């Protein structure tokens, strides 16, 4: 078996065909109900990063030259330059042959050479990856519920009513693809509340200042992800009282990914989270008619958003784990 560097910025069509084959075969084996990926802007998805970040990738090939798996490692900058996140995908027919271990060894060596102290990855709780990472000493840093809402199950009459249940002094705004000039600073100030709220606040890596927010939205566009934003504005002050974010990837256009939802402390208990998320669904109905479902994640510790999601029809379906390892300890385990 050979592990080679993979550069998505220069890769040809055959390389992306191979990449997709591994991912979709793995999805079919482990989570057959999940949507498949396509090659629309796949090179952009794998190569575009934030200005202070970098992504490196590898492919593994068997002795016959067929692709057996691939991996990528995103290296953060700024306050999180000590860490990175990675993904490993192994063809089901190649499992048990050391492919995952070889790819993990390569990326752990790269992380160490780059001065990273820790690396982490996300794993669906029902997949074989759980045992793989636990045997190598990874620890569960975060456990969340993943919830799904099929668009065919939405009660549109009720959802439309929920989206209109915003009383003065608030109004809801919907923005597709980005934010208008002048809103970035107020939006980022409200989003910064996530730095101090919730069990994962210390490791939250979102955009809590206007410059990083602009870079983040531009990066999403560059990767082929369409953004949909709903903002609650306090009309007396014009401050952003709350926000919710959703993206639809060109590479997986039938599923929406619900990102952060936050309400500023002074504006809680007014039903803004429910109204914003309901408004989002009503906008998606026409803006993304191909959507089959929306997924979102909530913490296990009595998240207030669990109640909001339930009112909209979301149902919890699987645990989502974030595994973390110290790079030096991981290299010892791999040896």
UniProtKB/TrEMBL annotation:
The keyword Iron-sulfur does not apply. Coiled coil: none annotated. InterPro entries: Acyl_CoA_acyltransferase, Bact_Acetyltransf, GNAT_dom. Keywords: Acyltransferase, Transferase. One of its GO terms (molecular function) is acyltransferase activity, transferring groups other than amino-acyl groups. Gene3D superfamilies: 3.40.630.30. It comes from the Bacteria. Residues 1-156 form the N-acetyltransferase domain. This is GNAT superfamily N-acetyltransferase. It comes from Phytomonospora endophytica. The lineage of its organism: Bacteria, Bacillati, Actinomycetota, Actinomycetes, Micromonosporales.
């Amino acid at each position: 078996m050979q592990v080679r560097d993979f550069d998505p910025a220069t890769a040809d069509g055959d390389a992306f065909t191979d990449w997709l084959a591994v991912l979709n075969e793995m999805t079919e084996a482990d989570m057959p109900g999940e949507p498949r990926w396509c090659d629309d802007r796949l090179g952009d998805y794998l190569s575009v990063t934030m200005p202070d970040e970098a992504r490196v990738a590898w492919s593994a090939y068997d002795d016959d030259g067929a692709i057996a798996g691939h991996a990528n490692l995103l290296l953060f900058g700024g306050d999180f330059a000590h860490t990175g996140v990675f993904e490993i995908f192994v063809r089901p027919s190649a499992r048990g042959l050391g492919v995952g271990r070889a790819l993990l060894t390569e990326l752990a060596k790269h992380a160490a050479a780059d001065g990273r102290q820790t690396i982490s990855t996300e794993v669906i709780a029902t997949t074989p990856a759980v045992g793989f990472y636990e045997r190598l000493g990874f620890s569960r840093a975060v456990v969340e519920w993943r919830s799904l809402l099929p668009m065919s199950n939405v009660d549109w009459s009720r959802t439309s009513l929920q989206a209109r249940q915003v009383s003065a002094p608030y109004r809801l705004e919907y923005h597709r693809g980005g934010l208008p000039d002048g809103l970035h600073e107020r939006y980022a100030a409200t989003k910064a509340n996530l730095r101090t709220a919730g069990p994962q606040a210390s490791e939250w890596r979102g955009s809590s200042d206007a410059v990083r927010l602009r870079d983040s939205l531009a990066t999403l566009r560059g990767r082929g992800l369409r953004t949909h934003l709903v903002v609650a504005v306090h009309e007396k002050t014009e401050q952003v009282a709350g926000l919710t974010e959703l993206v639809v990837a060109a590479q997986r256009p039938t599923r929406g990914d619900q990102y952060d939802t936050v309400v500023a402390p002074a504006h809680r208990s007014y039903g803004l989270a429910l109204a914003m998320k309901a408004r989002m669904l009503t906008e998606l109905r026409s803006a993304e008619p191909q959507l089959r479902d929306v997924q979102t994640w909530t913490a296990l510790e009595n998240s207030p958003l669990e109640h909001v999601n339930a009112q909209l029809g979301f149902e919890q379906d699987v645990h989502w784990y974030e595994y973390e390892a110290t790079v030096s300890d991981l290299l010892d385990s791999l040896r």
